[in-house]
């Protein structure tokens, strides 16, 4: 079962003073807030654009430079110099200071402090307690009661009258004025936001129809056909002619290169004669003597 929601409290009827303050304040605040809201929205848009285009890349670069110049050297200094040095100094201080101080506190200061605390209790605390309870407390009570009565008559009662007769009515009026000003500011800020968005849409539409659409129309209906015409009538034939001329020039250069090579060979032949042909050399390994077999006539059994 769902819990019942508390019913909203009925709004108290507003007086003529509230209505008389509300309408002029709202009109004045709306007139003052609309330019501020438009300037604020323009500043927000410019700030976001600068943040996305300039701030973030510059911030990343500065962060990297800061790490390279400060963070990494400091980390290395801390890790390899300061931390070991601090550990060594800590151990040295512990051995030279903490251990002797602990021994002094345990074996000297603690017994002396306990002895002084037993002595101070009997010499100071007990007499001070007796003085407070027997003499100072009654005297202070009578003095405090007299001061209370005097201060009540001189300060408290006039302050209560001033609060009840002056401050409370003035505070109520100031509270009404402050509440109405706050509500007027919120209402004017919301209306100024709507006006700012409408102005932004109107300016965007005007910019689109004055600049973007003519440029798009000129690109689609003028520049694109002209570009296609130039490409089909000038660039493509020029490219084809250039390819043909390049191919012919390449063939001519190849023929000229072959002719120059042949002429050089003829001149060399006329001046120095035909080049000697290399004599073929048998590079095979020499054969060894034939191995003797049983059927050979030079064996010892068949020599006779």
Short description:
By secondary structure, the chain is mainly α. It is built from 1 helix and no strands.
Q: How does the overall form come out from the CA principal axes?
A: flat
Q: How many β-strand runs?
A: 0
Order of helices and strands: H
Determine the mean pLDDT.
79
How many alpha or pi helices?
A: 1
What is the helical fraction, as a range of percent?
over 70%
Radius of gyration: 55 Å
The portion of residues forming beta strands comes to: under 5%
| Low-confidence runs of at least 5 consecutive residues | 296-304
Structural class: mainly alpha
Largest sheet: none
What does this 3D model show about the protein?
This protein has 304 residues and is an all-alpha fold. It has 1 helix and no strands. It has one helix at residues 16-272. The longest helix is centred in the middle third of the chain and has 257 residues, at 16-272. The radius of gyration is 55 Å and the shape is flat. The N and C termini lie far apart (140 Å). Residues 296-304 have low confidence and may be disordered.
Structural key phrases:
single chain; 304 residues; mainly alpha; flat; disordered C terminus
Protein topology:
Blueprint: H1 16-272
């Amino acid at each position: 079962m769902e819990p019942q929601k508390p019913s909203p409290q009925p709004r108290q009827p507003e007086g003529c003073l509230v209505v008389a303050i509300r309408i002029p304040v709202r009109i004045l605040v709306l007139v003052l807030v609309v330019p501020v809201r438009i300037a604020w929205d323009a500043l927000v848009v410019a700030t976001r654009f600068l943040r996305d285009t300039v701030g973030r890349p510059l911030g990343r670069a500065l962060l990297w430079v800061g790490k390279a110049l400060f963070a990494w050297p400091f980390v290395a200094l801390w890790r390899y110099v300061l931390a070991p040095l601090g550990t060594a100094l800590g151990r040295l201080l512990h051995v030279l200071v903490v251990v002797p101080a602990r021994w002094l506190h345990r074996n000297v200061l603690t017994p002396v402090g306990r002895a002084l605390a037993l002595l101070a209790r009997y010499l100071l605390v007990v007499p001070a307690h007796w003085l407070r309870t027997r003499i100072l407390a009654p005297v202070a009570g009578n003095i405090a009661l007299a001061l209370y009565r005097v201060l009540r008559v001189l300060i408290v009662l006039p302050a209560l009258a001033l609060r009840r007769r002056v401050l409370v009515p003035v505070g109520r009026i100031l509270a009404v004025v402050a509440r109405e000003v706050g509500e007027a500011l919120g209402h004017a800020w919301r209306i100024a936001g709507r006006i700012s968005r409408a102005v932004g849409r109107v300016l965007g539409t005007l910019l689109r129809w004055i600049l973007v659409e003519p440029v798009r129309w000129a690109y689609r209906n003028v520049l694109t056909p002209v570009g296609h015409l130039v490409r089909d009538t000038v660039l493509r034939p020029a490219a084809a002619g250039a390819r043909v001329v390049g191919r012919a020039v390449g063939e001519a250069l190849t023929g000229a290169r072959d002719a120059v090579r042949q002429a050089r060979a003829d001149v060399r032949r006329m001046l120095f004669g035909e080049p000697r042909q290399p004599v073929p050399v048998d590079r095979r390994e020499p054969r060894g003597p034939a191995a003797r077999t049983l059927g050979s006539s030079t064996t010892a059994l068949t020599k006779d």
